[in-house]
Amino acid sequence: MGNITGLTNYWPFLRGLAIDIVSGRDLTCSGSPVYVSNRVGETNSAVYISSTANYFMAPPDVYFAGDYTITAWVLMRSCPSYARLID
Q1: CA quadruple 57, 28, 61, 64: dihedral, nearest 10
Q2: How confident is the model over 21-46, as pLDDT tens digits?
Q3: How far is CA 86 from CA 5, 28, 40, 58, 81, in A?
Q4: 6 vs 8: CA distance, rounded Å
Q5: Which residues is 17 bridged to in the sheet?
Q6: In Å, what is the CA distance from 55 to each residue of 42, 51, 60?
């Protein structure tokens, strides 16, 4: 996809990877994510997180300061206490 104008980071789940296609600073996962088909059926383009022990972390030099936007498609099968998308 190359550089996307105006973005500093972009982490789509493509082919079972959480790579940053803008700056090369990839996400890391605390556990073993299960990659599944996304909402339109593309294989390994979404992630199923079945436990609170599994989460993705941005690289240590990525800060959310100033204006920023986070977009996510989420299918919540339950809503446990303290559930969140970003912390």
Answers
A1: -30
A2: 888 888 888 877 788 888 888 888 88
A3: 24, 14, 24, 10, 14
A4: 7
A5: 14
A6: 22, 8, 15
The pLDDT of residue 79 is 78
Nearest to 50 by CA among 30, 70, 28: 30
Identify the band that residue 47 occupies on the pLDDT scale cut at 50, 70 and 90. Answer: confident
CA triplet 64, 55, 73: central angle to 5 degrees?
75
Tracing tokens 């556990």 back to the chain, one arrives at 31
Strands 56-57, 34-36: pairing kind? unpaired
Identify the CA nearest to 46 among candidates 56, 37, 33. 37
Encode pLDDT of 63-76 as tens digits.
777 777 778 888 87
